[in-house]
Specification:
This protein is an alpha+beta fold. Helices cover about 30% and strands about 25% of the residues. The two termini are about 50 Å apart.
RNA sequence: GCCCCGGUCGUAUAGUCUGGUCUAGUAUGCCGGCCUGUCGAGCCGGAGAACCCGGGUUCGAAUCCCGGCCGGGGCGCCA
């Protein structure tokens, strides 16, 4: 048996020198692995000389061997036979990559690239990537085609939400607030589509769960029998993502101190009217037809959790509280929200696919059908019954990583104040 | 946009209520030294902040008052 030789490139996260031995704690390019690089004066005077002068935060390449006998209690021990410093910091690090001295969220965001050397930060963004790939995996195995719709749009999607305006060769254009209208138009030619996409919203909110640029998983499916079919896909998607993260990201979850439990299935279907009853019993005064505010959502979340449900659908919303493209069922609608512990993760529903009814809905909402002609045209050529949902990717990652603020799970968040970096 | 709280060495904080004793304390990081198995290393020494910006009160302001900017939280807004 001989020692295995290795090449290791990464950053020095901490240095401990004990007499003629230098211990470098090194992390690699992205995993959660930690290496303890050992350099002894007696064995390698030249390398030791260099190692004892190295600065925390330096980017280095090590060549060395992995000894049979591992003494280090932390990380894989590597005995360096060569050490090359590729770049060293020219300023004090803006935060402690080893995580001993805490950093405020604002400091982390300002220096996210350095913060990513902290185990917890890596864990969050590794989980984020796993969530995205697990979602793709599930949707593709269910016959959904990934599509990419425009983010520069000539018309505001549904009216209502505030849009970012921009100049498009002298014409007025907007950043897409949602792929809603485009994914529906696609239902005239493809039966199942999905898109991982940014949503741009110019709302001046400042909360722990809103951003002006956020990411969503948008799904639309045609030839459906009922709205239940859509909820089935959404529930399956959520369940698959949780299961996948649990399966492949145990180290990341450990690093975050998160014990992830998969949501109880089947998800409870809570009627909007039932939700109002619950709220009434909790002392809230809500008139039928009103949308639920965040305080109400949280109260329902707590109530449902006591009943044993972390994830639940709220169904049968009043149509008045929903957008024009949602199918009407008298005073009610074929729309649903998916909430997880009081946080809205997704909303969706069956759409109105009949041309005349759709035009009528637009009018009822006080909008002008002419403004939607590019969209309405798609409903003239054999549009099947269809529906879908938009699932907030940031919020899903937030829930899985048990982050308190949505900014924690977005590398460079865009909020009202933050435009750089 | 409204309400509450905050802004002090690179980082994280103490100090502010009860103005002077703060030439601003501590931890970590940083610099120098000692130590051949540290692993939140240890020990010794050192540098580092006129306290977000502007104005005011006062003999005297990190501390009190006003405005602005920024941060955290709550609400509103939210296809």
């Amino acid at each position: 048996m001989s020692a295995q030789s290795v090449k290791l490139s990464g950053w020095v996260n901490s240095i401990r020198a004990v007499g003629g031995i230098v211990f470098l704690e090194v992390i690699d390019g992205g995993s959660l692995d930690i290496y303890t690089v050992v350099v002894k004066k007696s064995r390698n005077p030249e390398v030791w000389q260099r190692a004892s002068k190295i600065k925390t935060g330096s980017a280095i390449t090590i060549r060395g061997t992995i000894p049979e006998v591992q003494v280090s209690k932390r990380g894989l021990e590597v005995h360096a036979t060569n050490l090359e410093v590729l770049a060293e910091p020219i300023d004090l690090l803006p935060l402690d990559p080893a995580g001993t001295t805490p950093a405020l969220l604002d400091t982390i965001i300002e220096h996210r690239y350095v913060a990513l050397r902290m185990a917890k930060q890596r864990a969050i963004f590794r989980i984020r990537a796993i969530v995205a790939s697990a979602a793709r995996e599930y949707l593709e195995s269910n016959g959904f085609l990934e599509v990419h719709t425009p983010k520069i749009c000539g018309a505001g999607a549904e009216g209502g939400a505030t849009l970012f305006q921009l100049d498009y060769f002298g014409r007025r254009a907007f950043l897409s607030q949602s792929p809603q209208l485009y994914k529906q138009m696609l239902m005239c030619g493809i039966s199942r589509v999905y898109e991982l996409t940014p949503y741009f919203r110019a709302e001046p909110h400042s909360t722990i769960r809103h951003l002006n640029e956020s990411w969503g998983i948008d799904v639309e499916m045609g030839f459906i029998d009922s709205v239940e079919e859509i909820m089935g896909i959404l529930e399956g998607l959520i369940a698959h993502v949780f299961a996948r993260v649990k399966e492949v990201a145990s180290r990341e979850l450990d690093a975050l101190g998160v014990k992830l439990s998969e949501p109880r299935r089947p998800f409870k279907h809570l009627d909007y009217s039932e939700a109002l009853e619950i709220l009434k019993s909790l002392g809230f005064e809500i008139d039928w037809g009103q949308d639920l505010g965040s305080t109400e959502e949280k109260a329902i979340g707590e109530f449902m959790l006591k009943e044993g449900y972390d994830a639940y659908f709220i169904v049968n919303y009043p149509w008045d509280a929903k957008p024009f493209y949602i199918m009407r069922k008298g005073k009610l609608s074929a729309a649903f929200d998916l909430d997880y512990k009081g946080l809205e993760l997704a909303s969706g529903g069956q759409r109105e696919h009949r041309y005349n009814e759709l035009v009528e809905n637009i009018r009822i909402k006080g909008l002008n059908p002419d403004d939607f002609s590019f969209y309405l045209k798609a409903f003239k050529y054999g549009m099947p019954p269809h529906g879908g949902f938009g699932l907030g990717l940031d919020r899903l990652v937030m829930v899985i990583t048990q982050s308190q603020n949505i900014r924690e799970v977005v590398l460079f968040p865009r909020d009202r104040q933050r435009l750089l970096p």
